[in-house]
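So, can you check this record?

>
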Amino acid sequence: MRVFRQRFTGRDGKTKQSRKWYVEFKDHLDTARRIPGFTDKGLTVELGRKLEKLVSLRVLGDTPGPEITRWLESLPADLRRKLADISLLDSRSVASGKPLNEHLNDFKANLRNAGRSEEYCNTVTARATRIIERCGFQVIGGMSASRVQACLADLKNEGLGQRTVNHYLQAIKQFTRWLVSDRRAGENPLAHLRAGNAQLDVRRERREMATDEILKLLEATLVGMRIYGLTGWERYTLYAAALGTGLRAKELASLTPKHCELNVELPTVRIDAADEKSRRGDVIPLPADLTRLLKQVIAHLEPAARLWPGTWAEKRRGSKMIQHDLNQAGVPYRTDEGQADFHSLRHTYLSRLGRSGASPKAMQRLARHTSVELTIGRYTHASLYDLASAVDGLPALPLAGSGAEPETEELKATGTDSADAILGNVLPLRLPAQPAFGCDSVQSSAVMGRHDDTEKTEVLEEAVGETPRKNQENMDVSHQSGSGRESNPPGDFSAATLGLKPRAVTRSAYTPGRDL
């Protein structure tokens, strides 16, 4: 290594020396290189020593240690580029001194190129930017896990919930993982940070809507005025579709008639990958009564027209919209159990699905969740009456002095102990009523029962007398005294199930685009 000043001839013909000192050294290919240093000789000598260490690392194939990395980050950008030109630095080392805001711009562009929505790109980048600015980070090497953790604690103290704070942590960690995968950083300084327990700080708990609340909501919405670009009839069908499919607001807003396969043996609705949260796309089966309702919805629509048009989903107006309709229906938006926003319709769908006897795996598949724990833990709601009903199904314990016969109790539990027990298991929970709805109704005699069931009930009544009718009345009373959440199939919005009063609305009375 040699440190010197260059000599040159000035305009006056005299020999002069350059203000800067230069370093001459041999690189990993044993080629002589000359790099401009600083006006201070001592700093230039230190530069030459660091360059020799860098050459040694390049020859051995090792990565720079923390000391060399910090030194590289402190170098001017033009000097780092010169070292990269002679292959002493890789792209990672060159990027280490680049301002973080430039990396963030590249990160956002990478998200767009990966097919992420503009809203997603803006949200993730804004969260990562907020953390970086609050921590005062300038370059990659200055990022510190302890400072990020302290920043997250400050956000929580300022009023943010733990789940929201976790979203900020997820965004900044996503950014640092991208820096590593794009070879802009050697390691992820935030890899060991873990999200907090959101269950200990729940700020927005959603609840399941009871059947009587669903009834009031649908009745009030059907005759409601136009709000947020949707008529009362359109919101009625929208809520019914959400309760019968569990689709999210933006997924529902993306549906057109071409997404619906209704005139087949197994009616379904298809979600495109671009419109689904997980970006995979899926096909969801439809209950019979919702299928009939959707046929009425798409009867007057073009194939490419949206079933529920407008910007209500894009502008996140779904919760305000349902809150307005709940107020009109006299149903509380918030109770001790939580709030009934638009996403609570998805919670209601999955809770009713669980009560219908669906397996956890089927529920996870219909919810399109990554794990069964998410479906069962967050989206299904079991009331005290549901738990008591499960406990009542346990066989009796052979306790001393109780006089209980285990065999007899087991026979009673299976309904083989008496004629009353047999009839109690055969009769439906609620006898089906004949719906008298017109265009605006969702008839569900196919879901809850037909005339065949009524005829069977009449035969049983003639054979046993008044016992079945009394047994049925007792069942109705005991069921109504429970939580109000009946064990109906999800998406069952029939007049028989919900107890809707007949309405004198005919098919000819409906005009698309107008309130009823």
User: Anything to note?
Assistant: The radius of gyration is 35 Å. Residues 2-94 form one domain. Strands lie at 2-9, 15-26, 32-36, 260-261, 268-271, 282-285, 334-335, 338-339.
